[in-house]
Amino acid sequence: MVTRRQVLGTGLAAAVSALALPAYARKRPIKIGYISPQSGALSAFSEADKYMIEQFLKTAPSKGLNVEVLVKDSQSNPNRAADVARELIVRDKVDLILVASTPDTTNPVCTIAEAEEVPVISSVAPWQPWFIGQQGNPNDPKSWTSFDYVYHFFWGLEDNVSVFLNMWKGVESNKSLGALWPNDGDGNAWASNVGMPPAAAKAGYKLTDPGRYKNLTDDFSAQIAAFKKNEVEIFTGIPIPPDFTTFWTQASQQGFKPKLASIAKALLFPESVAALGPLGHNLTCEVYWSPKFPFHSSLTGESCEALAERFSKAAGRQWTQPVGFTHALFEVAADVLKRADDPTDHEAVAKAIATTSLDTVVGNIGWGKDNVPPFARKNVAKTPLVGGQWRRKADGSFDLLIVENGNAPNIPLGGTLETLR
């Protein structure tokens, strides 16, 4: 019987295939599609892509894998992400798709792939906006269903909220909390009843939420005025990097300086913080990967520190958090393809993903664990999260120190939390 996906076909390859043909793939290499935001407002998430893909292709033959990686740029646009997913499925006939970085990229790709019965390993998006955001009715939990072909690993909003609240505990404040949440998948999830508001209220914080704003806004005067009016001393949000640069610069100019600012997403990258100059000192963020994490690569045996050093030397730049997760995507892909009965059969690959238990540079990845709610347990695997603070050095560069590890005590602290004023 010829299935629908077997007659789908072509696309543009963006990497060369490796050698060492295993017995099951002598006719052609295994095709892996890779999608991430390599240009546009979210491009900082993809700084490690080129290097990690090159290293994977060099390593694959030693693992008995004959692979080809077809790279696509979502251009930080959900519509474009969906289009390139279709290209990989319909024109390239990929055997597996890897996708990374924010729901704007992961969700459209996974939705298309699930409908076309193509296996996907997804990451670098909190699991709630990934899982709930793909449901037909996100507001009706009773209608939510699991997926058969798409699988995701990352932390959840509950982990990030907990890390931020743990950091704020150590700061004496009036418990006036201000939030800057955009009108996108991440912002809407953070502002919802599965995000920050109920947890903050339970911890005694009074929330000032000026409402959703459009990404790439150039004037935050109204939000800043609201925060000043309510004497906000603890500030949080999940803006894209250029928006936080605009906001924080305007906040300084207009006299808004909280005691602590904990910003998700925008402060993940050293370039984003360096763009702020002295204003970047002591800003805090979530840390989902660091050279200080106590894990090793299943592909190369490297420690997190060695992986970061090798990336920095090759790329001529400071390590960035996506280094670990981009590498881990290919770790899981290699493990899955080796274990699949037939790595060119979509059902076999999906089955292999579902039965994964692999120690990687971001920790153990395995689906079906009880640290995820039952409704999402089949498709979501959680990874550890800690809190970090950016410290400006004499030469103007920044170090990201781990200052909170309450939910992952096996990850060592690197410093003590300091306030902005």
Structure description:
The chain is α/β, with parallel strands linked by helices and 421 residues long. It has two domains: 4-155 and 292-381, Rossmann fold; 158-287 and 386-404, Response regulator (Rossmann fold), CATH 3.40.50.2300. Helices cover 32% and strands 17% of the residues. The protein is built from 13 helices and 15 strands. The protein has helices at 49-59, 78-90, 103-116, 127-131, 157-169, 185-190, 196-202, 221-229, 241-253, 270-274, 304-315, 322-339, 346-354; strands at 30-36, 67-73, 96-100, 120-123, 150-153, 176-180, 206-208, 234-237, 260-263, 284-287, 357-360, 363-366, 380-381, 386-392, 398-404. Strands 2-1-3-4-5-13 form a six-stranded parallel sheet, with helices on both faces. It has a four-stranded parallel sheet with strand order 7-6-8-9. Helix 1 (49-59) links the parallel strand 1 and strand 2 (67-73). Helix 2 (78-90) packs parallel to helix 3 (103-116). The radius of gyration is 21 Å and the shape is globular. The N and C termini lie far apart (69 Å).
